[in-house]
Specification:
Layout lengths: L15 H12 L6 E4 L6 E4 L12 H6 L30 E6 L4 H12 L2 E5 L3 H10 L4 E5 L11 H7 L3 H4 L3 E6 L7 H6 L4 E4 L6 H26 L3
Parallel strand pairs: 3-4, 3-5, 5-6, 6-7
Antiparallel strand pairs: 1-2
């Protein structure tokens, strides 16, 4: 029987009594599947009678025709957030500016506090118009946008559209972060598909400081030498 969730890749940690109950239910299956709910991400997991994943199995007709679905790699394990496994040892060089585009409430308060603790000067605005005006007037090192900011969905957001189509000579200096209920924190593939540098699930905003530091450190390790070389060559 599977031991990890196919959605969030975390271990189920079922008790012996729960395992026995699941196995008993599987033995009584006569066609169909047994549905479980992951206690961590709350998504449904379907098992066949042998305890394997039923929802990831491809029908024989699809295999025969070569139309087999492709699945992306799972989101990363972020258990380290609650175990203190990541520590920032970088020296703070200067105070950068961050634009917070999250509606007033607990999520914005958490993110604002995390950016202040990360030695940023954060600015929060309440409307799309103010956000676009701020971006035209000020060079922000980081822009943090909620996927439902000001009642506008991400795909229809003029802010997201502007950042996604921004010339690279400007875009490479902005660390763009998306926050929302649909994201998997630190899932690089999901960030890339949304033209962002980092995605954060709003359930994890209490750990926003550590999430940001880890993502930023990885970004600078990967792209820092390239940007430094471009600056030395005078091409940026």
């Amino acid at each position: 029987m599977i031991t990890t969730c196919p959605h969030c890749a975390r271990e189920f940690n079922f008790s012996e009594a729960q395992v026995a109950k699941i196995e008993a239910a599987l033995t009584t299956l006569k066609g169909g599947t047994l549905k479980l709910k992951c206690p961590r991400c709350y998504k449904a997991v379907e098992l066949s009678s042998d305890g394997d994943l039923a929802d990831w199995r491809q029908p024989v007709a699809q295999v025969a025709t070569g139309k087999v679905g492709l699945h992306p790699p799972p989101p990363p394990d972020i258990d380290w957030l609650t175990k203190g496994a990541f520590r920032d040892e970088d020296k703070i060089k200067d105070i950068a500016k961050a634009l917070i585009l999250i509606d007033p409430g607990e999520i914005r308060t958490e993110v604002l506090g995390a950016m202040v603790e990360s030695f940023y000067q954060p600015t929060a605005v309440d409307t799309v118009e103010d956000a676009l005006r701020q971006m035209q007037q000020i060079q922000y090192s980081s822009v943090i946008l909620h996927s439902r900011f000001a009642g506008t969905k991400l795909r229809k957001s003029p802010i997201h559209a502007q950042i996604s189509t921004m010339p690279m000579r400007q875009r490479r200096y902005i660390f763009y972060i998306l926050v929302g209920p649909e994201f998997h924190s630190l899932y690089g593939l999901e960030a890339l598909s949304n033209s962002a540098n980092l995605v954060v699930n709003e359930r994890d905003v209490e750990h926003f400081k550590n999430i940001y530091k880890r993502a930023k450190a990885e970004y600078e390790e990967l792209f820092g030498p390239l940007i430094g070389a471009l600056q030395e060559a005078g091409t940026v």
